């Protein structure tokens, strides 16, 4: 789209502003805490305007998940993909994850950990979307580990090492939000270092 | 109390029935999903009767956390304490945790993981209570690991090993609820085995 009229530009800006606010709210209060009325009030937009963008609460929740996925990709995945494949990329992915949680890219800590727990035991489209992101993330980690294995830099089952690293990230994120301190990050960093050391060849 | 009158017994039975339902609801829908109205309807008790027991939603939430802590202690902690201190107790605690999640002692999976994520980024008495349970649990794990270290059965920093084991449990619990399969438990069991193997002396 090279030329867009004013309404389309404004519509797109509104949509982005709504979703940026929505991901922040959901990272603290959950996707259930999102309501079109609340967002309209907070952003000074009409409810009918918001309905025109999202149609229903579930549509808003699904759009919020997609927006959070893009922010997550920018913060965690893309910087790691700029590093050469292999052990360095595995290390970079871990650093980016801890940094993403520590600097509160989302004010409530990891968006996906928060809302995945919220919807894990429920059915529906939101659950399916979150299960899909989790699967995609674990496969990406596994691929990044496998590159290091294929280069002979690590001796490990890729899925198993990906499981362990992700477990350290998640445990650190929860401990840090719950206790308001850095202890979990220090512990996770040591665990990541030791786990990669034990798999190094 | 050797002799109690009928009203006290019935009051205590009502309280137990309410809390047993409340922990199950909260493990799926969260502590925010608890309401005195909903519980009264589901259990066929009057709202005023429930108010007499709990006073406020926050009191009900705090009582639900205490009830869940007792169920958790019965399922995970007490069976491990029946085993001799040392590496066997560390293994038993891990087995009990995986079993506790797998057989859905709470229908939504681990109660504490669920509601800790719900309240991690909020303030207040519920947050404080959950942070307290998390601290207590991590200290207990650390003590159990330290016994094995003191007996010369493991060479590890107790807090670090406790962090790792707990991370595997939590990651398995989330993966299992989100994907409705056992893969996470299998991965966690291998991770626990390998981690204890690497720390064995």
Q: CATH architecture of chain A, please? A: Orthogonal Bundle
> What is the total number of structural domains of chain A?
1
Give me the strand/helix succession of chain A. Answer: HHHHHHHHH
Beta-strand level of the residues of chain A, as a percent range?
under 5%
* Biggest sheet statistics of chain A: none
How would you state the average pLDDT of chain A, rounded? 94
Gyration radius over CA of chain A = 19 Å
Largest interface: A-B, 41 and 41 residues
- The CATH superfamily of chain A is Tetracycline Repressor, domain 2
Distance N terminus to C terminus of chain A?
50 Å
Domain HTH tetR-type (chains A, B): 12-72
GO molecular function (chains A, B): DNA binding
Protein name (chains A, B): TetR/AcrR family transcriptional regulator
InterPro entries (chains A, B): Homeodomain-like_sf, HTH_TetR, Tet_transcr_reg_TetR-rel_C_sf, TetR_C
